[in-house]
Amino acid sequence: MEEWPDGDWTVRRLTGGAAGKSYRCPGCEQEVRSSAAHIVSWPAFPGGEDERRHWHTACWRKRLDRGPGRTRY
Fold first, then answer.
1. Which residues pair with 53 in a beta bridge?
2. Cβ neighbours of residue 69 under 8 Å, at least 6 residues apart?
3. What DSSP state is assigned to residue 21?
4. How many CB atoms lie within 10 A of CB 28?
5. DSSP letter at 28?
6. 9-67, pLDDT tens digit by residue?
7. Binning pLDDT at 50, 70 and 90, where does residue 68 land?
8. Are 1 and 46 in contact (CB under 8 A)?
9. How many angstroms separate the CA atoms of 19 and 49, rounded?
10. Structural domain boundaries of the chain?
11. d(CA 12, CA 49)
12. Which residues touch 5 (CB under 8 Å, ≥6 apart)?
């Protein structure tokens, strides 16, 4: 659990695997390959896991610096 100005988040750090699935980072809109270490986060409220997103680690840390409307959740 992490507390941020935009709310409380459940955060998992993934080391990457060979699953072959890639994701789109909501911070930079670039591909997050499943083999790369990255962050999976979702709002820490009941049902928040439905809003789970995969982020590049750096994009997650800098997401609040981007300003309103520059990130998608």
1. 41
2. none
3. -
4. 17
5. T
6. 999 999 877 567 889 999 999 999 888 999 999 999 999 999 999 999 999 999 888 76
7. low
8. no
9. 21
10. 2-66
11. 12
12. 64
